[in-house]
Amino acid sequence: MHILVCGGAGYIGSHMVQLLLERGHDVTTLDNLSTGHRDALLGGRFEFGDLGDSSVLDRVLSSSAFDAVMHFAAFIRVEESVAHPGKYFRNNLCNTLNLLDAMVRHGVRRFIFSSTAAVYGEPQYVPVDEDHPREPINPYGSSKRMVEDALVYYARAHGLQSVPLRYFNAAGADPGGRLGPRHNPLTHLIPLVLRAAAGVTPNVKVFGRDYPTPDGTAVRDYIHVVDLCEAHLAAIDYLMKGGETRAFNLGVGRGFSVQEVIDSAKRVTGRDFQVITEGRRPGDPAQLIANPSLANRIFGWKARLADLDTIVAHNWAWQLKTMGQKPA
Ligand SMILES: NC(=O)c1ccc[n+]([C@@H]2O[C@H](COP(=O)([O-])OP(=O)(O)OC[C@H]3O[C@@H](n4cnc5c(N)ncnc54)[C@H](O)[C@@H]3O)[C@@H](O)[C@H]2O)c1
Question: Model-level pTM?
Answer without folding.
Answer: 0.98
